[in-house]
């Protein structure tokens, strides 16, 4: 039995509750909870407080996931500074400002050009923000599925830069880091002894398995997240990482094709072991914001697995149709069907209970505090 962040029949109720919670938070801010950043050094500030600073920075803010996170942050009353790679991306920011869903918040959106490979550039981009959402990923048009081994190394290096830059910026208190379920679920045990196993926030994928099978996207996410934790723990940065399944949603393949194809390399093995799952981009954005707020009130910590649905044969067929590939590319040939059916009825589970509990607690506490 799997758990969901928000079940389908509860969507309308959850949306209404979330809107009210955001309104309660903004009212509390207006009633005297706003403070002054004061420009104090990192050591001089209270590390458990952002001083009422409502400005946050989002790397990859013009990406498919980044846009959804920016919209969610605006709804929750935050101002957002989007890190972009080049001047040309400013046009994408302008499109966001003109979007019907964000037009009324356009005065709270700014952008800054920064190279994620350049430390000083990142420090300047983050300066003045209470924290960072690191969602940026990398693609290599020359690589297989747009993601090569060199991209995996680059992603790990950029992760180090981002977290180090956070610790060098006096205003930054927290970071929410987007990893992947692929950093948790790929383990070199041939699935022979997994009948009673659970993939959860304590699970890490096997690096050598990723290398041997040329799963470069998984390797990049794995190394990047480990690098983030290593530096955050050594420097005292408050960090939470979220490990989502394959990100889907409206027009997802057209808008996020490279990452989708890179994620699905090795899809047949994931499907056969009951590990091929999806996550809606808008619910994933909500989870990011909840982790951010949970870091502030100490209800969030560590890693979180995030998924909506583990794909059945019908789900795999729909996914194949959505991305324009043969279903055999995802769930194998008909000769594999018996093995797949047996695997999908095994006791191997992916657990998002930690995130589910956090999201549920949010709605309860909102009404108690209002």
UniProtKB/TrEMBL annotation:
<keyword id="KW-0560">Oxidoreductase</keyword>
<dbReference type="GO" id="GO:0016616">
    <property type="term" value="F:oxidoreductase activity, acting on the CH-OH group of donors, NAD or NADP as acceptor"/>
</dbReference>
<comment type="similarity">
    <text>Belongs to the 3-beta-HSD family.</text>
</comment>
<protein>
    <submittedName>
        <fullName>Cinnamoyl-CoA reductase-like SNL6</fullName>
    </submittedName>
</protein>
<dbReference type="InterPro" id="IPR002225">
    <property type="entry name" value="3Beta_OHSteriod_DH/Estase"/>
</dbReference>
<keyword id="KW-0521">NADP</keyword>
<dbReference type="InterPro" id="IPR050425">
    <property type="entry name" value="NAD(P)_dehydrat-like"/>
</dbReference>
<dbReference type="InterPro" id="IPR036291">
    <property type="entry name" value="NAD(P)-bd_dom_sf"/>
</dbReference>
<dbReference type="GO" id="GO:0006694">
    <property type="term" value="P:steroid biosynthetic process"/>
</dbReference>
<dbReference type="Pfam" id="PF01073">
    <property type="entry name" value="3Beta_HSD"/>
</dbReference>
<feature type="domain" description="3-beta hydroxysteroid dehydrogenase/isomerase">
    <location>
        <begin position="58"/>
        <end position="250"/>
    </location>
</feature>
């Amino acid at each position: 039995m799997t758990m969901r962040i928000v079940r389908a029949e509860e969507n309308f109720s959850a949306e209404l509750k979330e809107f009210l919670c955001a309104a309660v938070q903004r009212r509390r801010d207006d009633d005297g909870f706003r403070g002054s950043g004061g420009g104090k050094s990192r050591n001089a500030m209270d590390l458990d407080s952002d001083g009422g600073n409502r400005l946050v920075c989002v790397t990859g803010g013009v990406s498919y996931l980044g846009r959804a996170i920016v919209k969610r942050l605006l709804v929750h009353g935050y101002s957002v500074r989007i890190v972009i790679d080049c001047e040309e991306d400013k046009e994408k920011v302008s499109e966001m400002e003109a979007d019907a869903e964000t037009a009324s918040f356009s005065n709270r959106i700014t952008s800054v050009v920064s190279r994620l490979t350049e430390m000083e550039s990142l420090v300047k981009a983050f300066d003045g923000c209470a924290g960072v959402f690191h969602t940026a990923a990398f693609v290599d048009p020359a690589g297989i599925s747009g993601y090569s081994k060199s991209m995996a190394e680059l992603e790990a290096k950029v992760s180090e830069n981002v977290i180090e830059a956070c610790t060098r910026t006096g205003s930054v208190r927290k970071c929410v880091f987007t990893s992947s379920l692929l950093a948790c679920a790929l383990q070199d045990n041939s699935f022979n002894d997994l009948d009673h196993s659970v993939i959860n926030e304590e699970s890490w994928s096997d690096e050598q398995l990723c290398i041997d099978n040329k799963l470069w996207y998984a390797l990049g996410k794995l190394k990047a997240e480990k690098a983030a934790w290593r530096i955050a723990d050594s420097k005292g940065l408050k960090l939470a990482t979220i490990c989502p399944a394959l990100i889907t949603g409206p027009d997802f393949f057209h808008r996020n094709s490279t990452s989708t194809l890179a994620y699905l390399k090795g899809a047949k093995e994931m499907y056969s072991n009951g590990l091929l799952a999806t996550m809606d981009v808008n619910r994933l954005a909500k989870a990011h914001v909840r982790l951010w707020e949970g870091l502030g009130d100490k209800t969030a910590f560590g890693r979180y697995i995030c998924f909506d649905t583990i794909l059945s044969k019908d789900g795999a067929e729909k996914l194949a149709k959505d991305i324009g590939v043969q279903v055999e590319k995802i769930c194998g040939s008909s000769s594999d069907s018996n093995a797949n059916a047996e695997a999908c009825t095994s006791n191997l589970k992916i657990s998002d209970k930690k995130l589910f509990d956090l999201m549920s607690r949010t709605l309860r506490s909102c009404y108690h505090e209002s």
